[in-house]
Amino acid sequence: MKPVPWSQVRRLLVTRPDHLGDLVVSTPALKALRRHLPQAQIWCLVSSPGIALAQNWADTVLTPADPLPTNLDAALGLSPRSSTYDILSRSKAKYRIGYSYAERPLARLTCWMSLTHTWTTSLQKPLRQGLKVPHEAEVVAQFLEATGLGPVEIRPEFPLSPAMEQWGKDKVRGRTVIHFAPRWGRLSDFCEMARRLAPAVVTYGPLEKALLPDTLPAIEGVEWFGGLSLPQWGAVLGGGAALVSTDTGAVHIAAARGTPVVVVHLPQHYALCSQQWYPWGVGWRALKHGPQLADRVVASVQELVGPRS
C-alpha cells in the first residue's frame, strides 16, 4: 500500500461501528492516531454502546445515525466490512483508507473500487497452514503501520476514573464475574454453573435481560447485576478475580482491565476465534461449548486464580 501523507491530515474521521469488543481491541489504533497526529481534529464513528470509550481519544464521537463531518482530509476504517467502506466513500475525504481480507472477494472488490488506500491480509491462510492466526489487535496495528503512520503499541485499554475503579472493587469484592449471554444455552445449566462458581456475580445488559424471567433466579452465593452504565460494567468486570463469558465484548473489557478470563466458544467458531479474539494481555483459557462445560469452566477458573479457600 502506498503511504498516506499523514503530515497533511488536519481533519480525520475514524470508523469502527461494529461491536463493543471490536472497539476495545482497536483502542491501540485510536491511541496511536492521537499520539502521531497531534495536529489533527479527530472524529470517531462508533456504535452507541462505545461512545463513552471512544471519547478518550477523539475530539468528537459520532454514531451511524449522525451526519458525517465535511471537508475531511482523511477517513480511516478500522473494520473490514462493506458498511465501513460505504461510510468512507460517503465521507468524500481526500484520502479514504481501509483494509480487507483475501477470503472475502466482494468486500475486497468494494474496498479497491471506493478507497484511495487499501491493504489486504488473510486469516484463513495461516489457519489452513497450521500457523498462528494474528489477533484482531495485531491486524489493526499492522494495517496502521502499513499506512506509514508509525509504530502502534498493542495494549488495549478501557480507562476508568479512580473513583469508578474503586466502586467496581467494592461492588464485586474479589468474586468471580460471569456474563450472561444467549450462547450459554439453557438457563438451568447456566444457573448450575453459576452456583458452582459462587461466590460470584452475574452481569447482564438490556438485550440479555429479555432472555431472563421477570424474577431473577435465586442462586445461593450469586448476585445479579443489571442496568449498569458502560463505565460501571467495566469497573465490575475489572473488579473480579476472573471473568467467565462466552465470546462477547465482556471478554475484551475484562482483559483491558487486567482480569483473567475464561472464554467459551461455539465449536464451529473455536479454531479461528480462539486465536483472533483471545483476551489480550491477561491469563486466559478458551473452551468449546459442549458436554461437562461446567466442570471445565470451574477447573479453568481454578487454574487461573487458584481453588476456593
Structure, explained:
By secondary structure, this protein is an alpha/beta fold. The chain has 2 domains: 6-146, Glycogen Phosphorylase B (Rossmann fold, 3-Layer(aba) Sandwich); 165-305, Rossmann fold, CATH 3.40.50. It is 40% helix and 18% strand. The protein has 14 helices and 12 strands. The protein has helices at residues 20-25, 27-36, 51-54, 82-91, 105-114, 124-128, 136-146, 162-172, 187-197, 206-209, 230-239, 249-256, 267-276, 293-305, and strands at residues 11-16, 41-46, 60-62, 74-77, 95-101, 117-121, 176-179, 200-203, 222-225, 243-246, 261-265, 284-288. It has a 6-stranded parallel beta sheet with strand order 3-2-1-4-5-6, sandwiched between helices. Strands 9-8-7-10-11-12 form a 6-stranded parallel beta sheet, sandwiched between helices. Helix 4 links the parallel strand 4 and strand 5. The N and C termini lie far apart (56 Å).
Helix content bin: 25-40%
Beta strands, count: 12
Count structural domains.
Answer: 2
Order of helices and strands: EHHEHEEHEHEHHHEHEHEHEHEHEH
List the helices and strands and how they pair.
Elements: E1 11-16, H1 20-25, H2 27-36, E2 41-46, H3 51-54, E3 60-62, E4 74-77, H4 82-91, E5 95-101, H5 105-114, E6 117-121, H6 124-128, H7 136-146, H8 162-172, E7 176-179, H9 187-197, E8 200-203, H10 206-209, E9 222-225, H11 230-239, E10 243-246, H12 249-256, E11 261-265, H13 267-276, E12 284-288, H14 293-305
Parallel strand pairs: 1-2, 1-4, 2-3, 4-5, 5-6, 7-8, 7-10, 8-9, 10-11, 11-12
Helix pairs in contact: 4-5, 8-11, 9-14
